[in-house]
Structure formats: structure tokens, C-alpha cells
Design brief:
With 466 residues, this protein is of the alpha/beta class. It has three domains: 2-47 and 58-67, no CATH class; 74-226, Rossmann fold (3-Layer(aba) Sandwich), CATH 3.40.50.720; 230-397, no CATH class. The protein is 40% helix and 15% strand. Helix 3 links the parallel strand 2 and strand 3 (103-110).
Length: 466
């Protein structure tokens, strides 16, 4: 391990900024840990109320919106899970059901999966349940449903407007923003404006409106804690620093997706089943396709730029197939700090709830008694052209994030409907991004208008092609 650390300090700097294109660098290490008798270590206790737990950055240097760690979280906290029927939402419910009893489920929301939603209401008995899908007889019937046995005390509400009001009101302390896509922007922004702790799984909120989100958090005093495993890892690693200027770069790791070992010339023939067969993560369909194209990492580059107040040149991406190292931070002295754990989204979800404290998590731990090998290599931009778009958008800012995100969401839907090839997703996104009317300082209404424009442009592209 010491040899690896020394090697990293000397070598990773040479390729991280340029994504390692053409360098062919691959780092491998393994360990075989003998079984030893555990040793009891006495630790110094930090008193409640101290601020030293923040660790990364000084109080004055911390980016607006990131928590400073006041160590004062002792009261009951009411939690809202937005998008509870999705993969992140289901994991969050599992964390709350098995974790710290200080966290109480106040509300859950879903869009259209009312069957699963009813099961969650019966199992977890939240105070509020919100369905935000299009008005229909089924939705109206769901609201007035009295089929639960025994009768549920959960208050059923309809519509996004009602949900936004709850997020901004006193009934909720922590908001887990797990609604997929730009649909989650309104509620995430509302939580930031209301000064809540925002456990952010919806990366599109920062991709589309990063400047507005961070400004809202700065003005309200909201805390934004990342739930993406990569950004949670960066957040944890940054606590090893003191000032923002200590950070040389962050290194986001990527699994490479289910097609990482395919010959590039074979990628256009990838089927929906091929793209959804992720080797290490269990995720929703859209994010799994994004992993196959590495558009998810492109969006994470943009997210990291806003969340950690970094220049795009301070962000690198490497392919790490085992998904054990979730991200790394390189400091100006050459030290590289990594966050490692088995791939399980419950860990970053729980950390966003309990920060700055750590408690036992309902997920597997590393087994240091077993040999393991970890490797990574620079991302191949020929294989993953979407990644280039991510760095370009991170540099441009303004309206470009909204357009890229809209084009990708629309293109992924077309792929999942067998209307385009997987490799055409990045091509479509490039076309739409290059032809939009760029603005450096858009309003929220302008961003939402461009979101719709981008989706329409994708449809027009497909129609023209056909």
C-alpha cells in the first residue's frame, strides 16, 4: 500500500488533467492481509458543539452550500424522500428502517408507480404521501383510497405544487432529492431556498441550474450533501484538507459500464439488454444507459464543478471496474486520499443524513482478510465521447448544462424505445448542444424553456434522419 501511495503521488498528476488519452496507463495493486488479533485503540472524544469536525477547508474557504459540520445534530429530524419508488428512494427507505432512530420518515413521493407506492405507505407509515403524476381517474382514486388494512393515517396529496409547499414548510428538516432527471429540479431548488439539509441524489439539479442552486443555498444557509457515491467520496476525502487551495484536483472513478470491454466497432450493435446489464451497480434504466455511454460521468463532472467550486481542469476521470474506490482527491503536496467501500448506495445516503457523525450502516463492509485487486485506467474518449461533452459544458456553464441534460434524457428514451442506436446518443447531444442559443447567466424560466427546446430538437433530429 505504501508503494502504491508513492506511485500515485508521482504518476497520477501526469495524466489526470488530460484524461490520460494516448498514455495507456493502468495502475494495479493487490493485498493479502493475514489474520491478526484485533487491538483495542482508545480514541480522543470530540465534544458536542465543536466545529473541528468539518475538516476539509476552513470555515471561510468552504464553498457555499456545503456543510461545515457543527456536530449539533441530536434532535429528531423529519425526512422527506422524494422519488421513493426509484432505486435511490428504496435504498433510503431501507436506511431509515434500519438506521438511526433520530431520523423519522415524514413524507414520500412518487410519480406514477402507485402500486409500489401503496406498499411503501403500508410498510413505513409516513405522515404524508405525494403523487405527482398527470391528473387521472387512477390518481384521484388513489388519493381517496381507503383500501389499506388497517386504515392508514398517512395523508395523501396530489401534485408538484403541494410537494413543493411541504418541502419548504416546517414539517421537513432533511430532503432526500431522488427524483430522476430535470423533474427533480423544482423540489431540490425549493429545499435549497428554504434552508433545508438537502441530500442530493438528483445530479440534474446542479447540471441544469448549478449557479442558481448554489446561490440559493448560500442565501438561505441550506446544506447540500451529495448522495452520488462519487461526490460523497470526494466530500469525505476533502475533509483531509484545510483550505480550498490545498486541493490540486479530484479524480472521479467510473465503472466503465456494461460495455467497457466491447470492441469499439461493436458498440453500435448494443441492444437495450446489453446496455442495462451493469456488472456492479443495481440502478434504474435511465442511469444504467447513462453508465453505458458514460454520460453519467459527464454529468458528474458538471455537478462536481458546482458542488466543490472547482475549475474543470481540476477534475479527472478514470475507469475503475471494481467500483470499490468511489473517488479520490489529490492535494498540492502530492498526497492522494481515496474513499473505498463495497458498492452500495445506502452508505452515501446514510452519511448525508448523519453527517458529521458516522453510525453503523446496513450494508456490507470491506473484508480485509481476503485478497483483492483494484485497477484503473484513463477513460478512453473515443469509446466515451459523451465525457468530452461533460468537460465542455463544465467550462461553458450558462445554458449549456440544461441543453445537454435535456438532449440526453430525450435520446436515452428513444434508445430505450428501440428508435436509435446507443452510440447515437452522444451524437445527438453534440448536435443539439452546438446549435442552441447560449446565454451565460440564464434565469430559471429560461433554463426550463431550453430544457423543452432541447427535447424538441432531439425529436426533430430523429424525424429528419428518418
Amino acid at each position: 500500500m505504501e508503494l502504491m501511495a508513492a506511485f500515485l503521488g508521482n504518476k497520477i498528476r501526469h495524466y489526470a488533467l488530460t484524461m490520460g488519452v494516448g498514455q495507456g496507463l493502468q495502475l494495479r495493486f493487490s493485498w493479502d492481509v493475514p489474520k491478526i488479533r484485533p487491538v483495542s485503540v482508545e480514541r480522543e472524544t470530540v465534544c458536542d458543539g465543536c466545529n473541528d469536525s468539518a475538516g476539509f477547508y476552513s470555515r471561510n474557504a468552504i464553498p457555499s452550500g456545503l456543510p461545515i459540520g457543527d456536530c449539533s445534530l441530536s434532535q429528531i429530524c423529519n425526512v422527506a424522500i422524494l422519488g421513493s419508488t426509484g432505486s435511490i428512494g428504496r435504498a433510503a427507505l431501507d436506511v431509515l428502517s434500519k438506521g438511526d432512530p433520530r431520523f423519522r420518515l415524514a413524507a414520500i413521493s412518487c410519480h406514477t408507480q402507485l402500486g409500489l407506492f401503496d406498499e411503501q405507505i403500508r410498510a413505513f407509515s409516513p405522515k404524508f404521501a405525494f403523487a405527482t403524476g398527470p391528473t387521472s381517474d387512477a390518481l384521484t382514486g388513489w388519493q381517496s383510497s381507503d383500501s389499506n388494512s388497517p386504515p392508514s393515517s398517512t395523508l395523501r396529496r396530489l401534485g408538484m405544487e403541494e410537494l413543493v409547499s411541504l418541502v419548504q414548510g416546517p414539517e421537513v428538516d432533511i430532503v432526500i432529492a431522488a427524483i430522476v432527471g430535470v423533474a427533480g429540479l423544482e423540489t431540490a431548488l425549493a429545499a435549497a431556498q428554504a434552508g433545508k439539509r438537502l441530500a442530493l441524489a438528483n445530479k440534474e439539479s446542479l447540471v441544469v441550474s448549478g449557479s442558481l442552486m448554489m446561490e440559493a443555498a448560500k442565501n438561505s444557509g441550506a446544506e447540500i450533501l451529495p448522495v452520488d457515491s462519487e461526490h460523497s467520496a470526494v466530500f469525505q476525502c476533502l475533509r483531509s484538507g484545510h483550505e480550498k487551495s490545498d486541493v490540486k484536483r479530484i479524480i472521479l472513478t467510473a465503472s466503465g459500464g456494461p460495455l467497457r470491454d466491447w470492441p469499439i466497432e461493436k458498440l453500435p450493435s448494443a441492444t437495450i439488454g446489453d446496455a442495462l446489464a451493469h456488472p456492479t451497480w443495481q440502478m434504474g434504466r435511465k442511469i444504467t444507459v447513462d453508465s453505458a455511454t458514460m454520460m453519467n460521468k459527464a454529468l458528474e463532472v458538471i455537478e462536481a464543478k458546482w458542488l466543490f467550486d472547482l475549475e474543470p481542469e481540476q477534475i479527472a476521470v478514470v475507469v475503475h471496474p471494481q467500483s470499490i474506490i468511489h473517488s479520490m482527491v489529490e492535494f498540492k503536496d502530492g498526497s492522494v486520499i481515496a474513499q473505498m467501500s463495497p458498492p452500495d448506495m445506502r452508505l452515501p445516503i446514510q452519511y448525508a443524513l448523519t453527517y458529521p457523525r458516522r453510525v453503523a450502516a446496513p450494508c456490507p463492509a470491506m473484508d480485509w482478510s481476503q485478497p483483492m485487486q483494484l485497477d484503473w485506467k484513463p477513460a478512453d474518449l473515443e469509446r466515451y465521447p459523451a465525457l468530452t461533452l461533460g468537460f465542455e459544458v463544465a467550462k461553458m456553464g450558462g445554458t449549456s448544462g440544461a441543453v445537454l441534460n435535456a438532449a440526453n434524457e430525450a435520446a436515452v428514451e428513444l434508445f430505450l424505445n428501440n428508435r436509435i442506436k446507443l452510440t447515437e446518443i452522444a451524437t445527438i447531444c453534440r448536435q443539439v448542444l452546438d446549435h442552441h442559443h447560449y446565454s451565460p447567466s440564464p434565469t430559471l424560466s429560461e433554463l426550463l424553456a431550453l430544457d423543452q427546446w432541447g427535447r424538441n430538437e432531439v425529436q426533430r433530429w430523429v424525424t429528419t434522419k428518418c
